[in-house]
Amino acid sequence: MKLSIGETLAKFLGARSVRALALGLAAAVAATTLPAATPASAHGERSQQAFLRMRTLNWYDVKWSKTEVNVNEDMELTGKVHVFSGWPQAVAKPEQAFLNVGEPGPVFVRKASFVSGIPTPRTFSLEIGQDYEYKIVLRARRQGRYHVHVQINVKDGGPIVGPGQWISIKGDMANFTNPVTLLDGSTVDLETLGIKWTMTYHFLWMAAAAFWVIYWFMQKGIIARGWQVAAGKANDIITPADKRFGGLWLAGSMLALLIFYAHANNEFPRTLPMQAGLLTGIDPMHEGPVTVISNYGGGSYKVRGRELTIKLKITNNGTEPLKIGEFTTAGLRFLNPDVFTTRPDFPEYLLADRGLSVNDPTPIAPGETKDVVVTVQDARFDIERLSDLAYDTDSQFGGLLFLFSPTGKRVKLEIGGPVIPRFQAGASL
Ligand SMILES: [Cu+2]
To answer: Smaller CB count within 10 Å for the chain: N or C?
Structure first.
């Protein structure tokens, strides 16, 4: 009897798990073929834990210089990032970080990237509690519509993804070129440089490896020989002919390596190793003296109402009255419509333009200390799966609160702390 792959799997795993697998596959196919209405799922940005997205890197002032570009055209992704003081213990500290872009494959190539104005084609260190300004120059490569995120990869902590924007690339990838001027003044196209030789080299070694494996397979097989050797019968199984073949093969490989090396060295006499060092001492942003202090006085999260309530004691030691205008966390922005009368340019799925309210709308006067209750309430909190903080072991939130003066000055406060999850609809703070 011949079995199909499905039937074989069913026999192996039991019918129920195969059905579950099939359902999962169907869901995965549906997820990847759904139109743009479900933006973020493709990158899995929502699948990262709420605490990780809220309490590691707080992204703000993120801007995409264009949302429509042609193949070969440049765009800039700029913004600022705050390294949260209460960086979770479960995540490795950003002592080795890399500024990157989250996109589905190389649809853009990164032409340059900067942190605090310093070129960062390599790994750098970030300091906890500090803010950094970044810029990434991207060149459009493949036509289509893609969700493009800023992203920082943290060694042992994984990629931490910022907000994403849909970018349309028009044109044809066949026309893409990636010219680079070398230190000797000549120009090469990185898109095609050395491709033929790279392919040839790889296929030659792959063919050699295949021949090596097949040869030993014909000599009673690799595993069977391995067993024999392990059983102490090496002298019976390894013949003088085998030894001769092995020796010749080793000599041939070494010779090929030398020839290839000499050839490459001759063709490219001046090369620099990859810039893979660690860049430490990047200056964080200089933000001036701290004039506003906040103390966290507890909070709660209503799971059903998607409502985060935060109690704060804020002291304004500045010279201007201040109004609370925005709370941002995990790339999401919750705005106070009292302060933001016009809608800022930001991806709709992350912008809750009426998502923030304050119990007392009067500004905090200079010299005043005021107790306020800030309410963050929007379905996006749940859609972006930040509600999961209710199920975390320590249920701590984190983010940035922005206060604004009448002259448009902005003050940034890092806030965060444990919240008590409430599961009943009517529960209050
Ligand atoms: Cu995305």
So the answer is: N
Task: Name which of 167, 59, 29 is nearest 104 in CA terms.
Answer: 167
User: How far does residue 368's CA lie from ligand 1's centre (Å)?
Assistant: 42
Q: Are 72 and 104 spatial neighbours (Cβ–Cβ below 8 Å)?
A: no
**How many residues in the chain?**
429
Q: What's the pTM?
A: 0.79
8 Å CB contact between 77 and 64 = yes
CA of 395 from ligand 1 middle (Å) equals: 25
Residue whose token pair is 């073949």: 245
Residue pair 219/243 in contact by the 8 Å Cβ criterion? no
* CA distance linking residue 15 with residue 7, whole number of Å: 9
Expressed in angstroms and rounded, the spacing between residue 308 Cα and the centre of ligand 1 is 25
Instruction: Using the mean position of ligand 1's atoms as its centre, give its distance from the Cα of residue 79 in Å.
Output: 17
44 CA to middle of ligand 1, Å?
A: 7
In the reported structure, the alpha carbon of residue 31 is separated from the centroid of ligand 1 by a whole-number distance in angstroms of 13
Identify each DSSP E strand in 44-182 by its residue range: 57-64, 68-70, 74-83, 97-102, 108-115, 118-119, 123-124, 131-140, 144-154, 158-170, 179-181
In 183-302, which residue ranges form alpha helices assigned H by DSSP? 195-218, 222-230, 234-237, 240-267
CA of 255 to the centre of ligand 1 (A): 48
**Three-state DSSP class for 240?**
helix
**Distance from the CA of 163 to the center of ligand 1, in angstroms?**
8
Instruction: Output the CA 43–ligand 1 centroid distance in Å.
Output: 5
Task: Provide the residue-wise pLDDT of the chain in tens; the chain has 429 residues.
Answer: 344 444 444 444 444 443 444 444 444 443 343 334 444 445 677 878 888 889 999 999 999 999 999 999 999 999 999 999 999 888 999 999 999 999 999 999 999 999 999 999 999 999 999 999 999 999 999 999 999 999 999 999 989 999 999 999 999 999 999 999 988 899 999 999 989 989 999 999 999 999 999 999 998 888 999 999 999 999 888 999 999 999 999 999 999 999 999 999 998 888 888 778 899 889 999 988 899 999 999 999 888 888 899 999 999 999 999 999 999 999 999 999 999 999 999 999 999 999 999 999 999 999 999 999 999 999 888 888 888 877 777 788 999 999 999 998 999 999 999 998 888 765 455
β-bridge pairing 187-189 and 179-181:
antiparallel
